């Protein structure tokens, strides 16, 4: 976000500079006596916004056609670029739709709405959804393309080396394996991931392995998990420097710190696949990676077997991480119980108030004994 703001500033000031230059030329032309150094100092000192208004105001008053022409050309350029960008987006999404749809159809009984795979709200949003497969509840994904229509965002993409990519998230069946946190990400993302993802920062740590490329950073919480995940064939993919699998995560814990103890525990497999320039070869590679991701769904549920002590460690780590939440949950349960008991007592006392004196005396006698007994049993429990 900051980078975008910076780049926008740069772009704005260069537009302002251009406009100022044009005005200067024109002024020189009309008046013939404006010293050029005046305009040289104008652009860099004023803020971008100030420079723009300073530049535009004299333009209009002087009826400066050159600058107007420049601005109109710029506007036409932006519009044309927008249409070009969305056409390119659309054609790219059509190209990638075919292999993605084939792999989804091979694995899921219901893909998209039954007719169409990508839900295309606009050239910018391409989502897909599939369900009906063993070991998982559903899969959803989206394609992230470059914001081609937007010169500033495009510059930003180039600067950040943002790739076009396919992100897919599969919600796995709950009870088929003991939950763990594992991730493989490129080095340049590892700092952000290790800091921003709640599951990774609380449960996993960076682990080293000579089975993956040096530019890949692994996060895991258990040696059994690490070795068995890598044995799935993942290490071959991660060892390849040019692999299209950018990021992969397996997690049973939310990515953001839950706000209450009633948070949803879901097991998820998430993958980010880079989409290169589409060629027969690259399309085949994307397909293979996607197939591998679905194969992992089976592998995690069917093949990964952790030793009992590993499972105990995972459970303990979760108990520890959610200790505070467990305490809050217990407190809430106690409070609710106390409230129902108090309410019951209140109703009972109301009934007693309506009783005849003799009856009431009997009730009070009984109640005293009851309370006494309760006190005693409490004391006994405390002593134990
Ligand atoms: C192309 O897609 C990206 C995201 O996938 C989006 O940010 C951009 O706005 C789209 N371009 C157009 C012209 O719709
Ligand atoms: C998933 O698709 C691949 C081919 O793309 C196929 O080999 C595999 O058997 C499928 N798995 C399931 C569970 O349908």
Automatic annotation (TrEMBL):
Pfam family, one: CCDC47
Compositionally biased residues, Basic and acidic residues: 356-378
MF GO annotations: calcium ion binding
Source organism superkingdom: Eukaryota
Signal peptide feature range: 1-24
Topology of the protein relative to the lipid bilayer: Single-pass membrane protein
Alphabetical keyword list: Membrane, Signal, Transmembrane, Transmembrane helix
Main location class: membrane
Region of interest called Disordered, as start-end residue ranges on this chain: 356-384
GO terms under biological process: endoplasmic reticulum calcium ion homeostasis
Entries under InterPro entries matching the protein: CCDC47 (IPR012879)
Cellular component aspect of the GO annotation: endoplasmic reticulum; membrane
Cellular compartments annotated: Membrane
PANTHER family linked to this entry: ADIPOCYTE-SPECIFIC PROTEIN 4-RELATED, PAT COMPLEX SUBUNIT CCDC47
Protein name, entry field: DUF1682-domain-containing protein
Source organism: Coemansia spiralis
